[in-house]
Task: structure prediction
Amino acid sequence: DTGVSQNPRHKITKRGQNVTFRCDPISEHNRLYWYRQTLGQGPEFLTYFQNEAQLEKSRLLSDRFSAERPKGSFSTLEIQRTEQGDSAMYLCASSLSAGIIQETQYFGPGTRLLVL
Amino acid sequence: LAKTTQPISMDSYEGQEVNITCSHNNIATNDYITWYQQFPSQGPRFIIQGYKTKVTNEVASLFIPADRKSSTLSLPRVSLSDTAVYYCLVVGSYGQNFVFGPGTRLSVLP
Result:
């Protein structure tokens, strides 16, 4: 399967704990995006990378959130001191940016986080 | 980023054609219209994308009038498995981040 993969698929944690999610994009895709989705809502943009550079962060991304893409391949999203409001589905997407050619984002299956 | 408006929900029966219309009055010259489908507990799946007139693939058709202020996703002969949430997005050609609305929840009934 050459699609976007995310691990773990589910995570249950206690409030105050740190969690880390991993995303493996489609090979050779240079852009990687993180979104958060709560029940009944569409995905909300969190941040994106072009290769290893983090180019934009949403205001939704508080100081407790950090994302990395150290070698321009896989990415991790860490949430420190989790709160119940962090419970959501965290989606990763990747795309191939080729100048003016319109890119399509391909999404992974998501990681569902439940903070107790 | 152009905002979109689409119906919150729609019902249909198996075998019918379903048309979901999306309004995007503030679409910019370089923007494309993209539709995604999402099943519960899965990530959104790309369906179709277009700039103007009509685009068709093996899954759906996308109709875009000349003023591009709206678009219509057409799903021919839907089946129960087409029950999902459908998102209309307007995306710039320079990697602007996707802004999802609440989407249209399509329920296909037997």
Observations:
- The mean pLDDT of chain A is 92.
- The CA atoms of residues 10 and 112 of chain A lie 5 Å apart.
- Chain A is about 0% helix and 50% strand.
- The radius of gyration of chain A is 14 Å.
